[in-house]
Hints:
The structure holds two protein chains of two kinds. Chain A is mainly alpha-helical. Chain A has one domain: ABC transporter involved in vitamin B12 uptake, BtuC (Orthogonal Bundle), CATH 1.10.3470. Chain A has helices at about 5-30, 40-60, 60-85, 90-115, 145-155, 160-175, 180-190, 190-195, 200-225, 240-250, 255-270, 285-305; strands at about 130, 155, 275-280, 280-285. In chain A, the strands form two sheets. A two-stranded antiparallel sheet of chain A has the order 1-2. In chain A, strands 3-4 form a two-stranded antiparallel sheet. Chain A is globular, with a radius of gyration of 20 Å. Chain B is α/β, with parallel strands linked by helices. Chain B folds into three domains: about 5-95 and about 175-255, 3-Layer(aba) Sandwich (Rossmann fold), CATH 3.40.50; about 100-155, no CATH class; about 270-365 and about 435-525, Rossmann fold (3-Layer(aba) Sandwich), CATH 3.40.50.300. Chain B is about 35% helix and about 25% strand. In chain B, a hairpin with a 2-residue loop joins strand 21 (about 490-495) and strand 22 (about 495-500). Classes of the chains: A mainly alpha, B alpha/beta. The interface of A and B includes residues 179, 196 and 320 of A. Chain A: It comes from Fulvimarina endophytica. Chain A: Pfam families: BPD_transp_2.
Amino acid sequence: MSFDALILVLDSTIRLSVPLILAALGGLFSERAGVFDIGLEGKMLIAAFAAAAVGAVYGSAWLGLGAGILASVALSLVHGYASISQRGSQIVSGVAINFLAAGLTAFLGYAWFSRGGQTPPLPPSGRFQTLTLPFADAVRDVPIFGPIYSTLLSGHNLLVYLGFLAVPLTAWIIYRTRFGLRLRAVGENPAAVDTAGISVAWLRYRAVIVCGIFCGLAGAYLSIAQSAGFVRDMTAGKGFIALAALIFAKWRPWPLLGACLLFGLLDAAAIRLQGVSVPGIGEVPVQFMQALPYILVVVLLAGFIGKAVPPRAGGVPYVKER
Amino acid sequence: MTEAALRDPMRDPAAARPPAIELVGIDKSFGPVRANRDIHLRIEKGTIHGIVGENGAGKSTLMSILYGYYHADAGQILVDGKPIDIRSPDEAIAAGIGMVFQHFMLVDTFTVLENVMLGVEGGARLKGGAAKVRAELQRLERDFVLEVDPDARIEDLPVGLQQRVEILKALYRGAETLILDEPTGVLTPAEADHLFRILAQLRDQGRTVILITHKLREIMEATDNVSVMRRGEIVATMKTTETSPAALAEEMVGRRVLLRVEKAEAKPGAPILEVADLSLTDSRGVKRLDDVSFDIRAGEIVGVAGVAGNGQSELMEVLSGMRKADGGRLAIDGEPVDLTRPAAAASRRRLGLAHVPEDRHRAGLVTAFSEDENAILGYHDDAHYGRGLFLDRRAIRDHAVRHIEQYDIRPPDPRLKAANFSGGNQQKIVLAREMERGPKILIVGQPTRGVDIGAIEFIHARLVEMRDAGCAILLVSVELDEIRGLSDRILVMCGGRIVGERGPEASEAELGLLMTGISSTEAAQ
């Protein structure tokens, strides 16, 4: 593969990793607080729909982004109410949210726009445009550094940069702040938090709200930044891949970045290798390449990562003893 | 109540200043159960006040109310003479009340420092707060001789140190009154003694300590005043120097209790259980059993003393067939047994070996099953309980009812789920199942853990009865008093080895030294 081709693959790796990073970071906040969330997928989907719908109607990317975040946070609160206040099963609640989002986006799409579940194409003002970093054009022809700077680093939209900045920010919050300390504590031993005089429920609610915001960003990225509109089921399992990345990273921010980039790279390679003849094998079927990330998820989770110890109180509703 | 009022130390003219804590008419119900009724209690400043009572007497509930973990249905709490309403732990902390729970409220994956600062971080960012906490911890450690490495992770610390972290947590929050709920349940005798020294020091520096326990010895050793609770009520409050263990036990149970086990001289017969060169290395490569050899004769009780985690559990698991050994020989009644076969518990049972596991929830019961189903676990293939694929529910129930009557299991309902029985009654379910089939060998771990004094008396008498009937009994317990009271011979384990054998007359100090691995010659000096 030539250097230019490599840069192109890495460039699309970055684009494809961003929704995974954002969603997985959301999951990190929720699960570190002890609320398992398999509803990342559903929250992304509803956010993608809400962002595209509002973006199309009002022609504003920022309004669209806000709508996406609101929709996703609303589902987070449903999950929080079911699993924190009502002490229901977090898995069942998460499954319900995924179904709800899949059905609701399709139904509302038909009802409002009559375009087979799609939203109308977005005007340029309804999308996040690519940003060009300073001097990107000037250095384009410098060997090695030129393509890296002007193609790989420059020319992405705002949400891409935000996604990558969110990783150190999350690491700082989780490990260096009071909120982070309490968040990690409540996921390990909520009784310790309770007896320290801190509200377990309020802490967990804040965690799921943060999760909703991140999933909202991830969903909006899909529909109003990466593409120009919503299509049915456009998340296509990205929420679950993000969940896998989170487990693969053992619930830690920096390894999470690595895991998401790895899955993004596989995705990018799959697209790149479509129709390409591999020496000795011949042309690899498209379906196989598309399935690769999912196969990798299974293989990695099945044995390559060692023991992934989840937060100890994860998945268990907090009930005072007796 | 009149009796309690008469004995109340508040009548003492020396106690003129307001008490640290006063509870007036506290009532608390959980559904139909009245856990606390009309509690009146004065805790004087600068004293160690013991609260004794059987399981379910309402001690822990009362203290959880004081700590704001539960809210009382009625009554009033006065701190330093001022009535206050404590609705949550942070309000209790603000009122200067700290609590060390029976199950530690620590985050295992956090460091000591992080655990202490949780809830009192002193700012949104951890950096500044952490430095302050570190300095304050060092001062507390110096003042109270409570050394612990602030950067050690909780899960790497022994339980004694974990408890110290809990105490530091409370002190860091400015606790003037410290409540400890059953603090010695997880400690070795040496650790417990150290704890009592710490508590005495806290008292001497003017703090108040409330010590909840069901161990009378601890009350006599460590406290200044003592209150006895029975069925949700305070039945007596007195000065510790003016009472005795026997009197306290009588108040707790409501009748006279035998604290010492009465037994005749053992008449050992032929060796029934012969163990030679037993060894076991666990999956992490740690030697759990190292050349363990001993015999048990018919009609004798052999006790195994040791600090928890020194191979006693593994020894029981290997002998009962729950776990295979790496090497060694075992003979039951002269018949050699293959130790390397996994999952051999059923075949051991057929050879006449019964096993009361030390952890009844993990290995003794299926708590989601009913009492009668639990009463036949492991014996369910017996012809009495059915035929072929089918169980005879009526036979099983009749069988369970017999156990319930014999062992006074309460509530007497064979269809109730095992999870709904109290710890002591769950233990009786297991004991009845294993003991009532006349086994040749009984391996029993922690027979009275979490069991009331009245029931302990019964269980001990029953064990001696079985011994006299010719059963060979291996008793493993963390309660040295129990080992010394019941055993005819005592083996001491340390680091997977049997480091010594003593008679029942061996002193606690001598056994305690042996348990820490100090050799017998040194111990004799």
